[in-house]
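Appendix B, Record 12. Input sequence as logged:
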Amino acid sequence: MATAICGFIGGCDNEPSKAQGGTFFLIRLVPEGTEKIDQHTLDRAVETIRKRMNSLGVRKPVITPEGTDRISVQIPGLSAEDTARAREYLRKIGRLEFRLVHPQSQQIIAAFEAGELPIPPGYVLMPTAEQESGSQRSENFVLVRTTAALDGQYVRRAFPTYDQAGWGVSLEFTSKGGQLFGELTSKHVGEQLAIILDGKVLSAPVVRAAIWGGRASISGHFTQEDVENLSIALENPLAVPVIIEEERAMSQ
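Logged structural output:
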């Protein structure tokens, strides 16, 4: 994968960059609910951002914690296109979840929209990643469990794949994650399992058989750039959301 993305931002180490200057980003970590940003969370975010930049082939970034909840990132030699790509990688959380879908998901959503039924206890509506403005909500939301059956902490590797179905992402779980995923799929054959990234449903395939061996795949209407972005985020997820508070060009 490193060979495929080498040079995306700033060129590879053995290639001189033709871009001038660079870009400075100031990122703030945003706690969720009653969570607080402690030193461990800040240190983990710094390391996650460093790994993401390394995966992208960024040359000599300067990544520094600022105060108690901010991180400065200085990246030399960025073009306008590279800056947009870097911005996307810096703010993507990469939080992966697997949640069971209600067996009457679309029927209940339609009834809810008509004011005939409430959302059942233990379930929540989640938008799909392909939601379009102006579309009916019942076609672009999925009714899923409020809690995840498995999450991305058990993902060891994520990498792009391409087959007759198009671009996708292959996941390799840790040994514990593989065991948990096998148990999950064996108990819910014939049911839908939603694959959720950063609060949006990427897909909700039907479990056709128990999946053992510690591997899974994510498919959808992806481009090559989509799956490269997704793979990096899934391998290096952020523990909390971030916002970019400041962005400015640096002189040469």
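The chain has two domains: 17-93+238-250, 96-235.
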